[in-house]
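Late entry, evening session. Most of the bench is empty. Finally got around to the prediction I had been postponing all week. Sequence below, unchanged from the version circulated by S.P.
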Amino acid sequence: MSKSLYDILIMGIKQRPALYTGDNSIHSLKIFVEGYILALKINNIPDVLDTFKEFTEWLSIKFKKQAYVKGWDTILLEECNMDNEKAINLFFELLEYYFKKS
């Protein structure tokens, strides 16, 4: 059984982001997520594509910033005073919260 992007993020990447992204930066995490979504889209594989877009819009509303101008990674980094480790932790905290409430 294949795993969703959410499963991969929560059950794998959350514990050791640098293993999957090359470093511990929120920007690298975003590049990984966008690359994964693009690969799914190119191969017509259904996943959480629309849901992740909704998650991004929810972050925009939550932090009163335009995610499509700055990107969700930059919004979280700014919210964490440019601390990548805190921004990554906040990403996973909010991702789990959002998907559990949905």
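Two things to note before I forget:
The longest helix spans residues 84-101.
The mean pLDDT is 88.
Will write this up properly tomorrow.
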